[in-house]
Automatic annotation (TrEMBL):
Pfam family, one: PqiA
Source organism of this protein record: Sapientia aquatica
Protein name as catalogued: Paraquat-inducible protein A
TM segment ranges: 42-63, 91-116
Keyword list, A-Z: Membrane, Transmembrane, Transmembrane helix
Record has Transmembrane as a keyword: yes
InterPro entries: PqiA-like
Length: 199
């Protein structure tokens, strides 16, 4: 398969790799491709895990705050809605887009690309979908939201009793799984997988 080196732009042929093998550029020794055995199956498993964690993150409470016997809890979308009610619509939209919509769209798009590659014999993945994944990834910022929540928890701990909800732990898990997905599912991998005949 003709491959262009991401570092020096040298075009070169790369043979199909066996499990555990890696191809390097003949000029600059940059990694061109790697075979991790059942990488596609692992990516699909992590993708499904990410979808479940995203669902849990948006269904269950993020945290509960108790002050003088009064208890209040909220979800991520509930927090965004409260920002909207306080005349901070742009911030509410940003929170909703970067923590809910962005990751959801990325997971759906990756599923639309990987599932047909796994169950069918498509010649190649859709160029538009691959490009859309690359464009939406910078807007998926669950880790930034998590950092903001942790800073808020530290500041609020002196004022009230804070109880972390299941959504906070789901959010932490989602950060890990999304990081794995970004490391495993590179654009060049999508093209390689889409050109292979699946059994």
């Amino acid at each position: 398969m003709l491959t262009i080196c991401p570092d020096c732009d040298l075009a070169q042929e790369v043979d199909e790799l066996q499990s555990g093998q890696q191809a390097q550029c003949v000029r600059c020794k940059a990694e061109l491709a790697a075979s991790f055995g059942d990488q596609l199956d692992i990516a699909l498993a992590i993708l499904l895990t990410s979808a479940i964690l995203l669902l849990l993150m948006n269904v269950f409470p993020l945290l509960e705050m108790r002050v003088q016997g009064v208890s209040r809890q909220t979800t991520i979308l509930g927090a965004a809605y409260q920002l909207y009610l306080q005349d901070m619509a742009p911030l509410a939209l940003l929170v909703a887009f970067t923590t809910v919509i962005g990751p959801l769209v990325e997971i759906i798009l990756l599923g639309m690309i990987l599932l047909p590659v796994k169950v069918a014999r498509f010649e190649r993945a859709s160029t538009g979908l691959v490009n859309l994944v690359q464009n939406i990834r910078p807007w998926s910022m669950v880790e930034v939201f998590m950092l903001g929540v942790l800073v808020s928890l530290v500041k609020l701990a002196a004022l009230a009793e804070i109880i972390t909800g299941p959504a906070l732990w789901a959010c932490a898990g989602l950060i890990v799984t999304m990081s794995f997905l970004k490391a495993m599912i590179r654009p060049e991998d999508l093209w390689v997988w889409s050109r292979k005949d699946q059994p």
